Amino acid sequence: MYRYFKAAVTGNSPVNRFFKLLSIYFPGEIITPEPGQFYMLQTGHTYDPLLKRPFSVFSHECSNAKDSNESSVTSNELKTKDKDLSLSSESSLQFLYRVRGKGTLGLAQMKAGDSIQVIGPMGNGYPAPEGDFIAVAGGIGIASLLPFLEKHRNRAYLFYGAQSREELVMLEKAGNAARETFITTDDGSEGRKGLITDVVKEFLNNSEKGSDKLSVISDKLKDKDSSLDSSLITHHSSLPLYACGPAPMLKALAEVVKGRGVKCYASLEEHMACGVGACLGCVVKTHSGQKRVCKEGPVFDIGEIAW
Amino acid sequence: MYRYFKAAVTGNSPVNRFFKLLSIYFPGEIITPEPGQFYMLQTGHTYDPLLKRPFSVFSHECSNAKDSNESSVTSNELKTKDKDLSLSSESSLQFLYRVRGKGTLGLAQMKAGDSIQVIGPMGNGYPAPEGDFIAVAGGIGIASLLPFLEKHRNRAYLFYGAQSREELVMLEKAGNAARETFITTDDGSEGRKGLITDVVKEFLNNSEKGSDKLSVISDKLKDKDSSLDSSLITHHSSLPLYACGPAPMLKALAEVVKGRGVKCYASLEEHMACGVGACLGCVVKTHSGQKRVCKEGPVFDIGEIAW
Amino acid sequence: MVNISVDIASLKLKNPVMTASGTFGYGEEYSEFVDLNRLGAIVVKGLSLLPKEGNPTPRIVETPAGMLNAIGLQNIGIKAFINEKLPFLRQFDTPVIANFFGDSIDEYVRAAVELCNASAASGGIHALEMNISCPNKQAGWIVFGTDPKTMEQVVTAVRKAANLPLIVKLSPNVTDIGFMAKVAENSGADAVSVINTITGMAVDIRRRRPVLANNTGGLSGPAIRPIAVRMVWEVCKAVKIPVIGMGGIMTANDALEFLIAGARAVAVGTASFTNPQATVEIAEGIERFMAEEGLSDINELIGSLKSI
Amino acid sequence: MVNISVDIASLKLKNPVMTASGTFGYGEEYSEFVDLNRLGAIVVKGLSLLPKEGNPTPRIVETPAGMLNAIGLQNIGIKAFINEKLPFLRQFDTPVIANFFGDSIDEYVRAAVELCNASAASGGIHALEMNISCPNKQAGWIVFGTDPKTMEQVVTAVRKAANLPLIVKLSPNVTDIGFMAKVAENSGADAVSVINTITGMAVDIRRRRPVLANNTGGLSGPAIRPIAVRMVWEVCKAVKIPVIGMGGIMTANDALEFLIAGARAVAVGTASFTNPQATVEIAEGIERFMAEEGLSDINELIGSLKSI
Ligand SMILES: Cc1cc2nc3c(=O)[nH]c(=O)nc-3n(C[C@H](O)[C@H](O)[C@H](O)COP(=O)(O)OP(=O)(O)OC[C@H]3O[C@@H](n4cnc5c(N)ncnc54)[C@H](O)[C@@H]3O)c2cc1C
Ligand SMILES: Cc1cc2nc3c(=O)[nH]c(=O)nc-3n(C[C@H](O)[C@H](O)[C@H](O)COP(=O)(O)OP(=O)(O)OC[C@H]3O[C@@H](n4cnc5c(N)ncnc54)[C@H](O)[C@@H]3O)c2cc1C
Ligand SMILES: Cc1cc2nc3c(=O)[nH]c(=O)nc-3n(C[C@H](O)[C@H](O)[C@H](O)COP(=O)(O)O)c2cc1C
Ligand SMILES: Cc1cc2nc3c(=O)[nH]c(=O)nc-3n(C[C@H](O)[C@H](O)[C@H](O)COP(=O)(O)O)c2cc1C
Ligand code: FES
Ligand code: FES
Q1: Distance, in angstroms, between B101 CA and closest chain C CA?
Q2: B206-247 per-position pLDDT tens digit
Q3: Which atom of ligand 2 is the closest one to the Cα of B54?
Q4: N or C, where is chain D less crowded by C-beta within 10 Å?
Q5: CATH number for position D29
């Protein structure tokens, strides 16, 4: 079982003008990633960019090669090349990413057939929810939450905010996996105009008050009964929250949930050098001391964070 | 007329396992390069590799775009993209290169459609020969000499040495352009085993002695009369020489021609940073002071070099 | 058979490749990726008497072919290291070198003594590496490693108090590193490590702030390799004690530059971040190079540089 | 309209982007690529009284995100510069700064005087930049720029003799560059240039030789940028005279790091090699950035760094 391996890029296609989806393939056994865990990905083949960059696992498939007859050309090629690798199973991983700086620019230039060094899965994923839950995604935060939504289909009230309609990437997929989806954009081009955390707050407040009226443009992406079941209303205000998004969103969310007595898990970001807990570059202050985002995180109890 | 421009890679295919041929296209007017001149080519898109690398022009085509209707897809694409460029003509350039270190490795990874920054043509090409001449190519030195042979078809006695048969790249093309071709390889896998400069020496010695017997495996690549015309024999020993190859070869050649009263031009190599004469990184000691290989060279009178 | 084992003071290293302090945690972080038995030595994250919080984040920023770090020497403290980390490291047949620091001569001495006592009691620490790139609280925050006098005092004091081999890790932020090495040697150092990170800064131009919360950080990685090789060469000419070379070593070829320039051993830092197996791959690569070159003993290579 | 003109002593620069000495020849080499009228200033290759041959080759080697050079200060000498190069440069409406050096105080003074005289006679030289990263023949080859005493002497002597604005170009191979800048200021410098190249070395591992014929060379390019930015910041805190920042500037954003850290102007070196139009593109980029940020005067940007 490898946690550091050289994979082959099998695809790297744009989702829209902001986001790309990277697919990689490794002809050996890897550790099954949990939603919320991440990988350190090589983003170039020289010393510039130098460091790997962290990306949440967006999807994965592992298949036992001995049982399966459908092996793609790529897999056969790799098999003959890397003869000494354990071929007990083959694995594919996908990463959804947004181009920001030189690392993601390098990643965006990778082409099918290129090799890519990968460390992972690293860190701790989202703790399993007991029943329904609330998911709060800000922008590319959906990359980390979507596999969680899909693992627990139809159990999430998804709150998804982005800057604009186009930046609500994978909205349909997410909506399909969620019970209900609430949307905001900064520019109002889709859903309500404003911050997603304000909508979460309204939702929690209303449900605490016993009201099912959420004055939110709720995107009914699936044919579901959108008026919330009254018996569940108080339940909503005690659902656990799972969040991934930019720091300001998480900070605002921490305020929203404060004192409500609900569990809230947030996936944090920090600049990382090693991803394995060695460099201490990625620490975050918590009420029980400093924690490494890459090792003790990236998912933390939001109440534990000393913002 | 641009001497610094951003071109499009239109091809970058292996010639054999040592050599590749890079084709680039620029939808504007460029300065027509002379055989022996070189270009500084970008070899990556980050700061590693950092500097451009010098490569001799291997071939070029310039066509007036207004007259021509046959414009490729690439050219059309570029035209629309770079609207403000002078489109009075379009130009293609080819470079034959061998992968050595990180610069040429970067170059080898370029793919059709990539952009590439180019400075050139730089330096001085080979002075025009008055009649027949001798060309001495060592390895990749053929890249610089072949366009010269082709410009002066059927006038060169080509002496071409390489380490092995496979490294005699473009042998057929070169042989076709030359009057006669003499070959050596270090391992004897083609032509005579040994150094090409020894064969040049023998050739000159014999022709001085008035003998036409050159005990050399002469590759008759073309259907030409291989026994040298007796009347030309003494002429041979006074032909001008044009050489491009590794420094030890050029040094040996300088010894061979010393005192014979023949002109011998050699294209030199030095580590280059700027290629335009500014950094003084590429100087060579000559009997008339220090000269910059990129500016006063790369072609020098071999007798002028203070080895 | 090719011999690639080297001696640093009384330490016998299986191969000349050590980990660089602060880039390999306390060893266990990389134990899933590397067989720790295959390392020349393990140098752990810098330790202080008391645990240290370090700097606020961001602590890391990438620069061209390098990175700046401003961890601020966060560590769990010597006691926790001895109780929680050392037992794990004792399982391996690889010397452990404890990197340590203080903010006064007294703290340096007490830290060294504590480490030596722990080792005397139950083993597991085979040498000390003094990080002197720290400011001296008592002397107007002058960095120990950039002032010959202060450095002489602290090294002499630690040397007297410590009975383990003592490696002094030099700061590159000095005018004459050969001279500083000589001072360390004369003050009793058994070896010197060359180099620590070079102080640098990156600016966030939109926010008009340093990118790192600490303003400046230490530059490491391939960008600094040419500077590090030069400094190692200068130090090797200046002192007789063994030199451990580091700074931007990513490959076996990089490590060989340091060995040929005179380093008896090398340490691999930033490379572990980009390739968690870098250390062992470099050790293997050195052995392969020697075989290719027909060399049977690494000592034929060390210091073999023919300079003019 | 955005103002990007800056003053360095009595020089008025149209924009803050100058060429770095030794990377732009005598100007004419790049005149086919760059409209020299669009530069803030042209700093020419370092000049000495007599022509200088420089070092043997190889003089250049690339390193990760950087390059080492050991040109050895090859130049045509001040006389040839004045007669053969200056007439060309006089055509442009751009200040020319003559970089110069010597191997003794006396040589420095004579070089400065010769340049000032030429300028007095027929103009064309607008300031002097002293390269003090040269060894002092008379004082055991100690590099002028790494020893405060020697530096003070040479700067004071030149200051007395020269009636053109005097820029002192500092060596980064020092423990405390802020202090060195202060010494330069106190000795009469009108401005300081920060930084010259950092000494480095590359080893050819097969041949067991330094790659450069001169053993060591000066590291330049993006690799050193974080070090240069830090040094510029330190110098700006230490002195009141204008600071010209340089070291690894490849883009407008890089230049802005230096300006925000406090540099009044910047010089572009190695970048010209990789992009012969880098200088003017950087000047344009600075203007664009200011427009984007709603700034109307570059002085709002200079030294605007909010550090802790
Ligand atoms: C646990 C985790 C999971 C992530 N998952 C995803 C994902 O699935 N999809 C996605 O698009 N992005 C994800 N990110 C963010 C992604 O890592 C950054 O966008 C990327 O590192 C930016 O690199 P860059 O060189 O392109 O940008 P830069 O120009 O270097 O910086 C852009 C921004 O990225 C951040 N950044 C830069 N370097 C690092 C680094 N080494 N580590 C962390 N952050 C850095 C900085 O905050 C900076 O503001 C994740 C980050 C973390 C910590
Ligand atoms: C005028 C001229 C024309 C050339 N024409 C061709 C050609 O047509 N085809 C071809 O394959 N090669 C040609 N070369 C050689 C080519 O430039 C080098 O092979 C290339 O620069 C190697 O770069 P690298 O990074 O791959 O190799 P490196 O690993 O950097 O070095 C390999 C070798 O290349 C040389 N080298 C490295 N950097 C430079 C540099 N900046 N400038 C010059 N030499 C350098 C060194 O001598 C070194 O031994 C020419 C060189 C010159 C000077
Ligand atoms: C994140 C990080 C943390 C470091 N921590 C320490 C430390 O605690 N003590 C120390 O002496 N050196 C420390 N260093 C310096 C390294 O040990 C090494 O000297 C330096 O990074 C140069 O080597 P490299 O370029 O291979 O990384 C640290 C370096 C990095 C990158
Ligand atoms: C090839 C080369 C030659 C140089 N020659 C000189 C010189 O003659 N005088 C001088 O003061 N600095 C000289 N320098 C230093 C540069 O002016 C500049 O300070 C240094 O290269 C850092 O800037 P950069 O990283 O932008 O190149 C030279 C630099 C290079 C690369
Ligand atoms: S990234 Fe290194 S400790 Fe987390
Ligand atoms: S390469 Fe710069 S002068 Fe020739």
Answers
A1: 13
A2: 877 765 555 444 444 433 444 444 444 557 888 999 999 999
A3: 17
A4: N
A5: 3.20.20.70
